[in-house]
Design a protein that fits this description.
There is one protein chain. The protein is α/β, with parallel strands linked by helices. The chain has one domain. The chain is built from eight helices and five strands, in the order αβαβααβββαααα. Strands 3-2-1-5-4 form a five-stranded mixed sheet. The longest helix has 15 residues, at about 165-175. The model has no long low-confidence stretch (mean pLDDT about 90).
């Protein structure tokens, strides 16, 4: 079961941010913060990656209050990073889960584990690979859903690197996460 609130310093950081906001702001969260604070992977992260801010006009205020170099970042040594561009599955918004609902204005939404894993395909550094392996070992993602969602909701819309990069990376992840499982489906 996910925790009711994030661990420190995130709890204090987000509580102070909530007190400074004039109106509710929805933040669609991706990255290590979601993996560690919501899904329970014991690793630290200094930033909370936000893909979408609603209302959109609040994005600049969020960055001013809680972004890199802000007073909150200097005090707590963590910050919000509005990434703005990421390869997310097409229908990720339908599967968002509200997390840590303790605040009245800061409303955090976490990507479903398969969607979260797929956002890590583009960069795929060692930390991203460890995150995906954790999600698989914890039983939060399964191979068939990951591949299906990649093929139907991500691959047709990939920006940046060519789809071949993503296909090769996904194949590597599948071999690392499920080494004993083979499938007759496509190249995966």
């Amino acid at each position: 079961m996910p925790p009711a609130s994030p661990f420190e310093p995130w709890l204090s950081f987000l509580t102070e941010l909530d007190a400074q906001l004039a109106e509710p702001v929805d933040l669609h969260c991706i990255g290590g913060f979601v993996v560690s604070q919501h899904y329970g992977f014991g690793r630290e992260t200094a930033d909370l990656d936000v893909f979408t801010v609603i209302p959109r006009e609040a994005a600049e205020r969020i960055v001013q209050l809680a972004g890199r170099g802000s007073a909150l970042q200097k005090k707590h040594r963590v910050y919000i990073d509005h990434v703005g561009v990421a390869n997310c599955p097409a229908n990720y918004g339908e599967r968002l889960a509200r997390v840590f609902p303790a605040w009245s204005k800061v409303r955090l939404w976490a990507l479903e584990p398969h969607d979260l894993a797929l956002t890590k395909l583009e960069r795929s550094n060692e930390r991203d690979i460890r995150d995906v392996i954790f999600l698989a070992q914890a039983g939060l993602i399964n191979r068939d859903t990951l591949v299906s969602r990649f093929e139907t909701e991500l691959e047709p819309y990939i920006t940046g690197r060519t789809p071949t990069w993503h296909q090769t990376t996904l194949k590597m992840w599948i071999e690392a996460c499920w080494p004993d499982r083979r499938s007759g489906r496509g190249s995966f």
